Amino acid sequence: MTDSAMATEQVVARGSRSNGTLYRGDPGMWSWVAHRITGVLTFFFLFAHVLDTALVRVSPNAYDQVIETYKSPIVNLLEVGLVGAVLYHALNGIRVMLVDFWAKGPKYQKPMLWTLLVVWVLVMVPGAYFMMVRTVSEMFGGS
Amino acid sequence: MTATVSEEKAGSRGDLPPVPDGAVTVTLKILRFNAEVDSEPRWESFNVPALPTDRVLNLLHYVKWYVDGTLTFRRSCAHGICGSDAMQINGVNRLGCKVLVKDLMSGGGKPTTITVAPIKGLPVHKDLLVDMEPFMEAFKAVKPFLITYGNEPTRERIQSAHDRERFDDTTKCILCACCTTSCPVFWNEGSYFGPAAIVNAHRFIFDSRDEGAEERLDILNDAEGVWRCRTTFNCTDACPRGIQVTKAIQEVKRALLFRR
Ligand code: SF4
Ligand code: SF4
Ligand code: FES
Fold first, then answer.
1. Which of B55, B56, B64, B84 should be mutated for ligand 3, with most atoms under 8 A from CB?
2. Which residue owns the Cα nearest ligand 3 atom 1?
3. What mean pLDDT is predicted for residues A72-76?
4. I need a labelling partner for A104 at 20 to 30 A (CA). Which of A2, A28, A55, B194 fits?
5. Which CATH number is A93's domain given?
6. Best residue in B232, B243, B245, B249 to probe A by mutation, most A CBs within 10 Å?
7. For residue B32, what are the β-bridge partners?
8. Where does the record place the 4Fe-4S ferredoxin-type domain (chain B) (predicted)?
9. Mean pLDDT score of chain B, rounded to an integer?
């Protein structure tokens, strides 16, 4: 065992395991990545939501002020994003449960994924419209 | 790298072979790593004449035999049987000996680049050669052999065709590690048993002649066992034997939940 051999082992340990290549995974992998992201987003929303709601017990006045800031267009956009995230998480959650508990689930995982994406779009397009219509008309329409 | 030119010639067979009719030049981009000189893996490209009917393994042979004998990879049967040449080809795990060049050609006469990298999640020794030991440890841990109790029968253990069918899919495994090293959970936590071990446990758990199902289910009920699986289906997509890997894992999960 010379020094260079020891250095070699260290290098193997470092250059190991993840080689930095991007794996072109199955659509199922990306659905899982999206599931994680939407889950984390929803968690942070719930966290913030618990805080702002708790505020009402501390000071109703401060609570009103905080809620007032929620009426900005940016928050409205975030709301649409939140609904999108929750909806995806819920639909994919059903898909994952079917994969686990329905014997034919693994076979139909891809059709189920496409179906949930279609449902998501079908709900989100009108949903986003109705959620945004007031903000947009207030900003541009002046009514 | 000028100093190592002569070393690079080592093991090469010398003159380039004649280029066959109908061959096109493709760029073979290989993620190489030599622990003695590199601190990080690095990409190296080779222009290789390839026939559409060539397999990626043929291109690697071309490089190793005629261009750079230091290129290191495993292969044995070259016919999809031994499971030794799992590698990441164009970003997905495949056997080098099963992927045809024609399926990787870019259309419209555009130049073709084929990227080859070692499978992920196992320590790289050199170039495409990885340490398979952690993978084999997980395989051994699920006791992939017949377990029986009681007296030895005087004749063979009979099984109906129907009972044999139950685990037919998981008998096809060649332990190539395509599945386990395509698994995002395994990349992050190498302690996860991984799909291949579960496939091989499935092969015995659902064998009517075997009596060790409970032991194996206990092993797979472990924190590093089947519950780690996030049903991403990368393993199913990667398996060169077409085994429905995620389905097998899900069957083990359900056996754990409902059978006992
Ligand atoms: S389905 Fe499970 S075992 Fe297979 S790659 Fe995905 S997480 Fe890993
Ligand atoms: S299950 Fe398929 S991909 Fe996994 S080791 Fe066996 S043959 Fe290879
Ligand atoms: S060399 Fe044996 S499976 Fe590819």
1. B84
2. B78
3. 84
4. B194
5. 1.20.1300.10
6. B232
7. B42
8. 163-185
9. 92
**B238 in contact with ligand 2, CB cutoff 6 A:** yes
CA distance A109 to A36: 18
Q: What are the backbone angles phi and psi of residue B87, rounded to the nearest 5°?
A: -155, 165
Task: Enter the tokens of residue B29.
Answer: 């981009």
User: Is residue A143 a part of any domain in this protein?
Assistant: no
Rounded mean pLDDT, A17-40? 88
Q: Tens digit of pLDDT for each residue in B15-74?
A: 888 899 999 999 999 999 999 999 999 999 999 999 999 999 999 999 999 999 999 999
Greater pLDDT, B198 or B258: B198
Give the C-alpha distances (Å, rounded to integers) separating A16 from B93, B127, B173, B179, B216.
17, 11, 26, 18, 30
Q: Do A99 and B118 touch (CB under 8 A)?
A: no
Residue reference for tokens 């060649």: B174
> Is the beta carbon of B249 within 6 A of some atom in ligand 1?
yes
Please tell me which of the candidates B120, B182, B253 has its beta carbon nearest to residue A18.
B120
- Would you call A16 an interface residue with chain B, using a CB distance cutoff of 8 Å? yes
- Name the 3-class secondary structure at B129: strand
CA distance B58 to B64: 10
Quick check: A10 pLDDT over 80? no
Nearest to A26 among B232, B247, B250 (CB): B232
Interface pTM (ipTM) of the complex?
Answer: 0.76
pLDDT > 70? residue A6:
no
Please report whether residue A7 resides in a domain.
Answer: no
Mutate to test the interface with B, among A23, A96, A104, A108 (most CBs of B within 10 A): A23
